[in-house]
Amino acid sequence: MLKQLILIRLSAFWDSMMRGRNRSQAKKTSGMAGAGKKLLIAVFAVYIVASLGFSVGMMFKQMADQLVPMNLGWIYFLYLAVAVLLFNFVGSIFAVYSQIYDAKDNDLLLSMPIPPRYILLSRILSVLVLNYIYAAIFALPAGIVYFTTARVGVLHVAFFVIATLALPLLAVSVSCLVGWLIGLITIHFKRKNLISSFFMLLFFGFYMVFMMNFNTYLQRLLANAEDIGRTLSRALPPAYSYGMAIAQADVMHLLLVLAFCVIPFLIVYLVLSKSFVKVATTKKGGVKVAYVEKEMKTGTAQTALLKKEWARFSSLPAYIMNSALGVLFEILLAGYVLINADKVLLMVSQAIPLNYDGRDILPLGICLLLGLLSVMNFTTAPALSLEGKNLQLLQSLPVRPIDIFNAKIKLNIYVGLPSIVISGVACWIAFGLTPVQGLFAVLLPAAVQSFIAVFGMFANILLPRFDWRNETVAIKQSASVLLTMFGGVAVFAAPAVLGLWLLKMLSVEAILAILCAVFALLTAGIYQFIRTKGQDKFRYM
Length: 541
Fold this sequence. Notes:
Blueprint: H1 2-18, H2 23-28, H3 31-67, H4 73-101, H5 106-110, H6 116-149, H7 154-186, H8 192-212, H9 214-223, H10 225-235, H11 237-247, H12 251-281, H13 301-315, H14 317-323, H15 325-339, H16 341-351, E1 355-356, E2 359-360, H17 362-374, H18 391-395, H19 401-430, H20 435-462, H21 471-476, H22 479-502, H23 508-539
Antiparallel strand pairs: 1-2
């Protein structure tokens, strides 16, 4: 029984990643089209893996060149362990709660004669598979770099494989424990999805702060490698034993690594199995509010549609995390530049020349950066696909299709606009921009945000996907989302290059005005398509 549950979970995981459509619809796809799609996915996957592997390998190459000659390989692997554990934790904390405690089939499985501990273990193992994928992103490039730089034997490689396979167990243990705590907290709130979204954004925020300062940490590490390594060895014994086991081929430390990883995993599993049924079956909690008679208020159809869109957006953590990341980045950027304006100026001046023909082009760079972050707010890209089986109900409502489209477009703008204003004003103050330049630091990202809102709606009208079994498929794996992500960046790049070319002839303020006009025209043109042909397409979906 446990074997079947594990196979079902792994099959569902593979199906959602590679296919995401039901079998009957998959059979309707022609062989050539299916082969072409698989080839495209394979090429894209190879590109992503190669890019990540190269960047991680280059990062660890800097460390290996300095640590290996000093016979400090244990510090090298200590930092690899920290990187793997951190990346595993951040990556799996988003999946643990939804897959273990908030899965849609919990009630169905618990109603069957299946021991709850088997259900829990099958879900934990599916998360563990995801963690092994995350671990490989760091461990494989780092291992190749070290073993081609240092002279080691077969035993070192064998210990590396064994210890690395054990690390994700510890990461999953911590992720499950934190997910369990989040589950126990959220059952006391009516809007538990909103609370879980808050926790996810909080963890992701800490992760992004760490990544934004990673180069600084790396330089400090290389300058004080041994001192920092010994400090971390006392704070993180599993990472220290991991480093010693591989670098020194130490059997005792290898056993300690296994103990540090396997024992917590077993303990966490036993603890969770005791409370799994309670957390998984408990619905909304919170204080019950007595009914108070109030006057009924009426609203327009647009208001009702907009409220529906907001309710869906705020109740799906995956929706927030995948289609509104620009909001988080803009807020983080605002706080960072207000605190470290001089440091940011120094880093930017080292990367690009800020003086072009005697003119300061920093305002143009700031506006383009904020515009690029706005491209990352594309809630409209999966908005129509998320209607799923409710599409016919939506089509039967006494409202025009354009009213439905407008509600989804407005949500995108309302979600993105506050952070645009915050980040634009922060850059205005931190970098001492003129009033006109500061105004464009808000106007240009707002123009880009309006463009990406209608562009995402346009893409979803052309490439809707209603055959999903899980909202995550529509949010992450639909063609409209990919088109909006990559197409939005490509469309944004063209005006950005135009702006840099116009520097030879026009002032920065004039260029920013032209870019705002370009995005306004693009927005108007795409919206005209949505108002005409888009409505016709919606009626026959």
